[in-house]
Amino acid sequence: MRRTLSQSISTTGTALHAGVAVRMTLAPAASGAGVVFRRSDLGGKEVPALYDRVGETRLGTVIGEGGVSVGVIEHLMAAVAGAEIDDMLVTLDGPEPPILDGDALSYLQLIGQAGAREQAGARPSIEVLRRVEVTEGKASAALVPAAADAPGLSFDFEIAFPTPAIGTQRMTWRFSREAFARDIAPARTFGFVQELDMLKQMDRGHGASLQNTLAIDGDTVLNADLMRFPDEFVRHKILDAIGDMALAGAPLIARFEGRKSGHALNNALLRKLMADGGNYRMA
Hints:
By secondary structure, the chain is α+β, with helices and mostly antiparallel strands.
């Protein structure tokens, strides 16, 4: 059966890029509605959280429709996927969900406080039948059929950065609600101090702080006391990928293989998967 929230819940926080206070309400939705974002500050216009509504991926995943957009949805969408919520209405009075702690755990805790309930309606999955891959330079992302002994969604992700603050990190991980809450949801986003001026010139990053973003300056993590895992950076990349894959509109049965991939490749991968009906079947 499908799952939605038991009741509405609200919070207020700062938007990562816009830097403004945003009030967010998560609410139950009818069976089959999927996850929909509503901009209350723009007359209640709505955008469904789907891969083909993604219009920008440089500094987060941005969806849009009819001249209305919602940015940086990947952390919230990861929490939605991690809690296995199918139908939900997200109402915002600003351009992005609040960044909160820069992780998915903050959203997961809100969903936990609201509670979840089952409702009538089929909960189909998208089973990947053959390898689908996209590349850009040395970066790549692929979806491959799940192993017979590991049905569901799993990840094999590797990142490499020249700074020893990150270095090369690799993680293989299999999805479950419990494993997501324990292993992935707490991983915070990260950024480089040297890029801050560039972000400001782009009118972005105004809400980033040493409380919600792991800040890397040269070979050092300035706020390393906030780190929850030694390999937090690759865990956060898996978090991002979970949020981006949630835009498929149904749970995936596949293994995700990421090599230095980000939001752009993640979205390109979903578009390539869905462009050919021979790549998948609804299970």
